[in-house]
């Protein structure tokens, strides 16, 4: 039997952005509790919360100042427990972001560590009197950082940081740090969370002459954490943020010697994501098929997490130079649309607000192998705001209805943590949950229909993937469950182009359209950007 996370629908959301229950302009845990009906209605099985710990918010919560408390605008731990109860009562799960690689520079550990070279916590972080060490580690936030070392005036030494300089890296060579972070892990698992999205988990250790990513020591630590989780808890999941090529990712799933996984249960499939956008823009399936053919089979119990967009920039580390230039020219023509190497825009604006394309992308997400992770707001085609700094433009308030602040908050608009999207095309007056729930043909109801259909078709969840022979390169056509004894196979057709395309179904196949119940065989004509799911 598959583990729950292998077939689930994940939904990523930011508590700050989802629903404000007390009118302070910031979303909160109580507000999220009020919206669980919506998530259940949509078909969400597991909610992933962006960081909720206390933080000075120099990186929107990825700079943790206390692992044991919740950021004050979100509510108290008691509220979090109630949220977990409500989620579990609905048969849903909840995972939280766990930022293990670094803390905030305002975390008491760092304040103590930087105080003096003799501090008892000095070696909880990575200090050096020179910036010449670990030169082969790339700089991740290239827009704002010029070095992975930052100067600390108190002792005249430098500390190591892979992200913003306000996020000093913890020193995992120190057993006390390992223990402290395992304590944090235990605390949240004891509270009842169903697992973690492990932030920046490839970067835990530093070694001279390496990129300081994917080191054997990092794998050993994650395996230790997995052993701890497995020994003490049931049904929890470790989902890693590891932005690497599939061949480097495979190692993160581990190998228990019996065909099973003994490291992370899940990893995001970063390389497939930009190729879905590329395939659509070029009306050419080649790069999507190539990357999926290059994707190794996973050990038992493991699963990919697939996604279209998330809270970060649309990352483009995992494409070639030429592909990168192409992606920027199509999807980030203006400098303000870029962040580092990536694109700081949401799904709907990336696709010009064309609902056919937005639905098509969701169809690929929900039919290709992997556990789909939706990003809040993309199911209604929410817009972005490139005027906001950093990646904040894709973290604006959820658009619930056409009332003030899009129903997100009853605070005066000026008090909101970020302005709600209000432009003509993507603003809350037009794009909102309430309006789309009422319209059977809306994007929201279409996505919900796909989720329901996916859940009713085991072949789409776990069936083997076989490309449909002879389909034009302007389409992405495949069969799931074709050669692994599934009772029903599902044939999925996508037209990536703005022209009608003809697809010849396998000889002798008599299939039923899952959405219209129409019987189909022989040649199928796909309208521009059309997608069809056929059961046969
Ligand atoms: C991850 C997060 C990103 C954050 C970074 C540093 O990449 O997704 O939002 O800025 O880690 O914690």
Could you explain the architecture of this structure?
The protein is α/β, with parallel strands linked by helices and 536 residues long. The protein is 28% helix and 17% strand. It has helices spanning 15-18, 29-34, 36-42, 77-89, 108-115, 175-191, 216-232, 246-253, 272-282, 286-293, 321-331, 347-350, 355-367, 433-438, 443-456, 458-462; strands at 10-13, 46-49, 53-54, 66-70, 93-99, 127-128, 149-152, 157-160, 195-199, 237-240, 266-268, 303-307, 338-339, 342-343, 371-375, 465-467, 475-480, 490-495, 501-504, 511-513, 519-520, 523-526, 531-535. α9 runs antiparallel to α10. Bound molecules: alpha-D-glucopyranose. Alpha-D-glucopyranose (GLC) is lined by residues 59, 62, 99, 163, 199-200, 241, 311-312.
Cα gyration radius (Å):
23 Å
| Strand content bin | 15-25%
Main sheet characteristics: 8 strands, parallel, barrel
Structural class of the secondary elements? alpha/beta
Helicity, as a percent range:
25-40%
Kindly state the number of beta strands. Answer: 23
Taking the alpha carbons of the first and last residues, their distance comes to 23 Å
- Spans with pLDDT under 50 lasting ≥5 residues? none
Which ions and ligands are bound to the chains?
A: alpha-D-glucopyranose
By DSSP (H or I, 4+ residues per run), the number of helices equals 16
Q: Strands of the largest sheet, in order across it?
A: 1-2-5-9-10-11-12-15
**Mean pLDDT reading:** 97
Shape: globular
């Amino acid at each position: 039997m598959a583990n729950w996370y292998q077939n689930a629908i994940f939904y990523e959301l930011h508590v700050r952005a989802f629903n404000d229950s007390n009118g302070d302009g910031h979303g909160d845990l109580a507000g999220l509790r009020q919206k669980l009906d919506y998530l259940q209605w949509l078909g969400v099985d597991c909610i992933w919360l962006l960081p909720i710990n206390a933080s000075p918010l120099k990186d929107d919560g990825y700079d943790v100042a206390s692992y044991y408390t919740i950021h004050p605008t979100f509510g108290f731990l008691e509220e979090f427990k109630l949220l977990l109860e409500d989620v579990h009562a609905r048969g849903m799960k909840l995972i939280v972001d766990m930022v293990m690689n670094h803390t905030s520079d305002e975390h008491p550990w760092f304040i103590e560590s930087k105080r003096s070279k003799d501090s008892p916590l000095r070696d909880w972080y990575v200090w050096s009197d020179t910036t010449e060490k670990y030169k082969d580690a790339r700089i991740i936030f290239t827009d704002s950082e010029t070095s992975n070392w930052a100067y600390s005036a108190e002792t005249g030494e430098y500390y190591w940081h892979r992200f913003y300089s306000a996020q000093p890296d913890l020193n995992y060579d120190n057993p006390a740090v390992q223990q402290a972070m395992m304590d944090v892990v235990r605390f949240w698992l004891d509270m009842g969370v169903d697992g973690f999205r492990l932030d920046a988990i490839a970067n835990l250790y530093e070694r001279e002459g390496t990129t300081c990513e994917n080191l054997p020591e990092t794998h050993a630590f994650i395996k230790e954490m997995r052993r701890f989780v497995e020994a003490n808890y049931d049904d929890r999941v470790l989902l890693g943020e590891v932005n690497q090529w599939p061949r480097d990712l495979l190692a993160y799933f581990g190998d228990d010697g019996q065909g099973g996984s003994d490291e992370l249960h899940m990893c995001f499939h970063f390389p497939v994501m930009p190729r879905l956008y590329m395939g659509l823009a070029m009306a050419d399936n080649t790069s999507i098929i190539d990357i999926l053919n290059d994707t190794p089979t996973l050990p038992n119990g493991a699963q990919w997490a697939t996604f279209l967009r998330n809270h970060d920039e649309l990352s483009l580390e995992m494409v070639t130079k030429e592909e990168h230039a192409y992606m920027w020219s199509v999807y980030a023509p203006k400098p303000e649309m870029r962040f580092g190497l990536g694109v700081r825009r949401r799904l709907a604006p990336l696709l010009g607000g064309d609902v056919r394309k937005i639905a098509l992308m969701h169809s690929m997400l929900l039919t290709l192998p992997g556990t789909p992770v939706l990003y809040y707001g993309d199911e209604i085609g929410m817009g972005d705001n490139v005027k906001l700094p950093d990646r904040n433009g894709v973290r604006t308030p959820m658009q619930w209805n056409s009332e003030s602040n899009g129903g997100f908050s009853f605070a005066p608009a000026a008090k909101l943590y970020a302005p709600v999207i209000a432009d003509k095309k993507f603003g809350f007056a037009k794009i909102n949950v309430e309006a789309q729930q009422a319209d059977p043909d809306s994007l929201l109801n279409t996505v919900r229909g796909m989720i329901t259909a996916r859940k009713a078709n085991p072949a789409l969840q776990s069936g083997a993937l076989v490309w449909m022979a002879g389909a034009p390169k302007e389409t992405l056509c495949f069969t799931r469950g074709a050669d692994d004894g599934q009772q029903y196979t599902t044939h999925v057709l996508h037209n990536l182009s703005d022209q009608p395309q003809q697809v010849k179904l396998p000889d002798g196949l008599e299939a039923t359209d899952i959405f219209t119940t129409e019987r189909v065989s022989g040649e199928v004509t796909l309208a521009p950007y059309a997608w069809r799911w056929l059961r046969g």
